[in-house]
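$ run holo --ligand "alpha-D-glucopyranose" --emit tokens
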Amino acid sequence: MTEWWRDAVFYQVYPRSFADGDGDGQGDLAGLTARLDAIAALGVDALWLTPFYPSPMVDGGYDVADYTDVDPRYGDLAAFDRLLAAAHAAGLRVTIDLVPNHCSSEHRWFRDAIEAAPGSPERARFLVRDGRGPGGAQPPTNWGSVFSGASWTRFPDGQWYYHLFDPTQPDFNWANPEVAEEFERILRFWLDRGVDGFRIDVSDALIKDFDAGDTPGGHPVIPKGASSPLHEHYRAFRRVMDDYDGDRMAVLETGAPAEEVALLVRPDEMHLAFDLALTKARWTAPALHEAIEEGLAVARLSGAPATWVIENHDLPRAVTRYGADVELSGEYVPETEHEDAGGPDLEQGTRRARAAAVLLCSLPGAVYLFQGQELGLPEVEDLPDDVREDPVFHRSGGTTRGRDGCRVPLPWEGSEAPYGFGPEGSAPWLPQPEVFAGLRRELQERDPGSMLALYRELLTTRKAHTVLREGTLEWLAAHEVPGGSAGDVLAFRLRGAEESAVVVVNTGPDVVPVAPGYLVSSSVPRAALAGGLPRDAAVVVVEPTSDQENQ
Ligand code: GLC
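-- output --
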């Protein structure tokens, strides 16, 4: 099939926490290769690997020291080639993370920039400015970093360099053609090796307008709109990718509004862009509706498919988020700020995460799952401070908990840590909580009522019914869903060439009737639907065709 990515299901692997082949407590490519069958058995189409490049790991590898190599903790290029070959043999495509906004301060270019003089070509690869005030001691703008604190740091000679994230993550100067050339080389390096695509980190923020000067709140000024040179860069990426056969693709990480995102996924730019609204939406029908509308708006405006996500490595696990009943705002907001002191209600959270899984796997377009989502893992909220690594935690002085809690190594088998993540007796880089014992994959594989069994069923159903992947979505008003109580029910019809389906999610306390038709998916056991669709549950029914109706 051409353009396989249009309705594909991608599985996000955080290599450091997936499987540890050599027992050093950190996941690696050999560990992942040995466990690929578990991913293939889930029924996904492709992998997305977060960065595995040489890195000081200040930001979990999003501080890249060398874009065309493998960090020794993960293996080497030969291990990558083995992974790629094994994945392809198992029918899985492989996509990798591209981090074009910034590198690590250990990157050769930045080491050179430190040594070089102001005004040198080495400095011109980064966003370097003189400071303001006497002796240039004031930073060029008042902009803050996404990870708290200032976004400017001084070189030893007094010039300032800009970093949207941590001071060890200097931003590249995309106005310098050398940067674009270097990224073309990096793209080709991995495309030549056979990767099927990329996930592009912080994709919408490559260009900054320092002339805008100080801003209220210290927000960075990132030029938007069709005239931004950003589009030229993605057109250039696209030309490189189109040089290769096999429908290579890229998905953008972006939190921009739909009109902006739509510009980035025009036919001559990139292929997909995450709709991250669902990762933050509260568990109410209007909030879910709004989040889905955002993804559909991009699709309507651009012709690119919507791309759905509920969890990733930057956000609290769904089970905990839905259990805490909160809305997340802004980017990189890892707090779940429990409304009651008792902590999240994980039973409620799991119920809702199951219903969310049914919804996610019944949305037209591409779908991304984050490792452990299929196991219903909760956020690990009680990690001791001294094991936390996320710069969000450290730079906020510990006031923001950070993102380590969704990155805890996966439980595979066995009743004690490391639960098969690594060899017996090895100590995972983040400690696994005891609750992982009951959620280990091997147990869930044998339990038809498990989250894993649900995801497997959902992905099988999604494959079997084209309408769930490619249908046209029409919202159903409360009165169109039999007995649907206004406000709490999210319902839509998917229309396809061969069949149509109705998806109903009940976020409210009252039982509602199940729409008529042939039940293909349910977040609760079928027996639990006898009286109707209970609270925090979702179903998908395939409707009788109009031919049958007319008979
Ligand atoms: C992206 C990544 C996040 C990282 C940030 C800076 O948002 O998903 O993990 O910290 O970029 O590279």
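-- notes --
Residues 59-60, 62, 99, 165, 201-202, 253, 313-314 surround alpha-D-glucopyranose (CB under 6 Å).
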